[in-house]
Amino acid sequence: MQKKSFHLVSLGCAKNTVDSESMAQLLTGSGFQPLDNPKQAEVLIVNTCGFIGPAKEESLNTLRQLARKKRAGQILIAAGCLTQRYGREVVRQVPGIDGILGTRRWMDIVEVASRLRDGKHPEPLYHLPEVETVGSDDHGVLRSAVHGASAYIKIADGCRRPCAFCAIPIIKGTAVSRPIEAILAEATALQKQGVREIILIAQDTTDYGHDLGMKDGLAQLLERLVVAVPEVDWLRIMYAYPGYVTDRLIEVMAAQPKILPYLDMPLQHAHPQALRRMRRPANIDWVHRTLEKMRTAMPDLALRTTFIVGYPGETEEEFQTLLDFIQEIRFDRVGAFQFSFEPGTTSEPLGDPIPAEVKQARWEQLMQLQQGISLESNQSLVGKTLDVLVEGWGQIEAETGQKDKIEHISLGRSYRDAPEIDGMVIISGHAPVGELVQTRIDGAMIYDLSGVVASKDTIINLTDIPLNQV
Fold this sequence. Notes:
single chain, alpha/beta, CATH 2.40.50.140, 3 domains, seven-stranded mixed sheet, six-stranded parallel sheet, about 30% helix, about 25% strand, globular, disordered C terminus
């Protein structure tokens, strides 16, 4: 075991990933060495997710596995959403945890790790202060997570929305926007690192700047970003809130080519009564009008949304309304979740009355419908040329009947695909990783596309590359 070293596991969404990267920066800056092998690290950290039941179980299971294998002298810290919400209950369920760090004070990771290394805490150390200063005491670390040529920037933390099913305000607190100058400085630093795509994230990106007294804060931020990072090719927006996609935001997106014609706007349902029970915006007419405006301003717009099935009180009529809505709007990407009962949320009095088998059947029906729509949408792109951000190489067995015939491929994403949650573009041959490559689409699947590089000069000859780079 190596002294003053750490192994960090990050679970959950991209917002959690940013917190994990920020903690890693602080630890590294304080002399801790990051290690991939947990057996060799002195400090083990799990940045947990506590959003819904399956995520909580994954977090607990990961902690249990590390706790069981923990050796003498190793320290196990449970951080993040699960610990912020449940605190001592996590320690009760997972014996062997040495320290608890809440999501609102991720910036105290060095302090917690150092205190535990001192060995003066026979009982677990609980570090869960209710101090909501996120954005003002980040210790100068980048609030971003880089993955290849793409990077997430967290522009705000917390949420002030009243959604009945959601525990995020309990876990994260109210919305706190980061100063615009700090975001611009980070984006500039990422540009210097060669990042080609910046993805703006928050619990609600469209609420950015509200607490700072800004009107149309996200639109203002985007206008400044376009100027600040001229060498970044793509700016992508995630987690927009219905009712707050303003005309100005649409105008800015349509006017600036580097702001991708892509929007992730979780709607959760389409029946007004279901939405009211969820305490979500229930004006479906607004959704129709806004999506029409966006598609008129950006004809190539890719729309992503998320729905919940099996919410308490959801009738067959309400579910059918949701299916009809999906059929009518024809979203490019849809994520669907079965309702997960969360104690402490305002939906708790509603219970969880819809049987699991009904939820499962509705989820399957919704996803089957969407798969047909997604396939048709992808098929409409065959013959077109798209810019694809190449992220890696691979190989597949060629369809020639010869088992030893291997075809080399490149994997990437078009503007229509956010990392990890959307589809991929499979390109024949080896295209340069980290570059935007014009690709002619020649095949469509439910979620993915296939294509060939439009210019043969772009394909890399493997014989020109040292073996240790292949």
